[in-house]
Records
---
Amino acid sequence: MAQQKAKATERIAVDEGNILRQNRSIQVEGAFGVLKQDRDFRRFLTRGITKTETQFFLLAFAFNINKLHNRTIYKRLGIELFNQEAA
């Protein structure tokens, strides 16, 4: 266990790990923040795992379509927030 922890810490400490961590923190937290604050999504309207997953899938799909639409309008396709190499 200690070996795995040391290996993970080592990967995070390098520049590439730092960039990947920055991208992930921005992308994930931002999506939930937009859904909650901007789209006023506070609770699921359905019951059951399958229906709730379906509702969340539709929300995520709409979020991604809206994001693609905005990037297309402002001609920001193919531009990443941080430059990163293959992990």
Note: The two ends are 23 Å apart (CA to CA).
---
Amino acid sequence: MTPAAPRPRRAPRPHRFDVYAAVSGLLGGLLLWGIGLSTRPADQPIVLLDGRWVILLPLAVTAGCEVLRRAAPRTALLVGTAAVVLDLVTQGNLLTVLMYTDLMYAAVLYGTPASARRIPWITGLLSVAGALVPFALWRAPETLLIGVGVGIVSFAPASTGLIVRNHRDVAEAAQLRAEQTALLAEMDRTQAVVAERARMARELHDMVANHLSAIAIHSTAALSLDDTKTSREALAVIRENSVEGLAEMRRLIGILRDGDGEPAATPTLDSLVALVAGARGNGLDVTLVTLPDLTHGQVPAPVELAAYRIVQESLTNALKHASPGRVTVSLDQPNGSLTVEVTSPCGDRDGPSAPGSGAGLVGMRERAALLHGTFEAGPEDSAGGRIWAVRATLPLKDGGPA
């Protein structure tokens, strides 16, 4: 299959203002021509083409170039230069010269950057040459006016165009910087909103999921077992977790309403004892192993919070999914980092379980990543059988917000 031929580039359409300028210049030139007003008398030596009708040719050509002053500025300037040279050897028309100065201005303003740099230099050199060369040849002070005239017709509009172009470029650059700043600010705002939503989602899940999981498991047990004592014990656990979960929910709602960054009492490593005791009350056989120096104040607060939440979520998952057996929580501090490990039996569960969504593992991994740490979770083989192991390594120095 032969590739399709590229479409020919369409010529740019003239700007409406340029058409109006061309028509106005042409009509003004015709008016001056009609009343017999020209720029020089017919008996001057420079007038080589005599006759009133020949004046209209450079006028018409220059007016046509005005139509292209923005669409094709370099072409318009080259053709206009030829037209104004032709006008010099006739009696001349003032509107032809005026339109040519506009072509010079437009070539610098709308042309390429190279043209904008070169045209003022070229016209400046021509102005100087137009003054010095005739003066050197004829030694008449009046010849200096030739250079002045060249400068007025060419160098002055070119310099004006360069000044306007520079101001326009500066304004466009400032506008671009403002747009980029606004875009970056919007991106930062969006990222901050997403980060805050993720943080609140983690807090909501970690603070409430443990209590709701215990409620779900014990309510299932109370409904499935025909034992008054067991049902009363299950209902007691349900009530306790309901009250604690409601308190956590009220605390989280207060954070959202008041805009506080953290709860009033942020969990610490010292709170792990109460957390493990609560897990035992929910029916888990939990053992906590920590080093003596791992107490509140020895570890940065963000690391403490992350470690607490990881242990909390791991115990919640063990309550929902683990097989009967010992659950071990251990913390250590090797090589300037805090390691958290939670292991639980992994196998077929005999009792009731609660469904999971996987958000807990995502939240634990996010907490470790925010502190530039590592996280892994999965089944493993051990001396006591198949276990589910959760391990997190949290640096103690470069910790960020958890």
Note: The first helix runs from residue 16 to 34.
